[in-house]
Amino acid sequence: MHAARASARSEGLGAWVAGTVRLPLAAAACAVVAAVCATGLLVSPWSAAGCAAGAVAGLSAAGAVLRRSVRRLGGITGDVLGALVECATAAALVVAAAVASWG
Predict the structure, then answer these.
(1) Of 11, 24, 12, residue with least CA distance to 82
(2) Residues 50 and 96 sit within 8 Å (Cβ to Cβ)
(3) Quick one: DSSP state of residue 7?
(4) Contacts for 89 with CB less than 8 Å, ≥ 6 apart
(5) How far is the C-alpha of 70 from the C-alpha of 77, rounded, in Å?
(6) Are 35 and 51 in contact (CB under 8 A)?
(7) pLDDT tens-digit profile of 31-77?
(8) What SS3 state is found at 11?
(9) Could you give the CA distance from residue 84 to residue 91 in angstroms, rounded to a whole number?
């Protein structure tokens, strides 16, 4: 996904941030999230499932917005980064709440 690391413009937040997160750091962040979700098993299986489903939903939503933005704009901007945060948060919270309410 090399295109996702590109900045749409040479100035601004997108140019400053684009390509700064390397794969090992992203993998470590995912491992930490998985460990946090696993601690939900201490409360109930539904808590852990809600956490994991929310994380997957948030990453999926952000990934979809990122791909669309890179295709349309040719890279990322600061506004795209903000949109990624908002979409990921909304998707994660809605899915986590829905799954946790089933338990």
Answers:
(1) 12
(2) yes
(3) B
(4) 58
(5) 9
(6) no
(7) 999 999 999 999 989 999 999 999 999 999 999 999 999 999 998 99
(8) coil
(9) 11
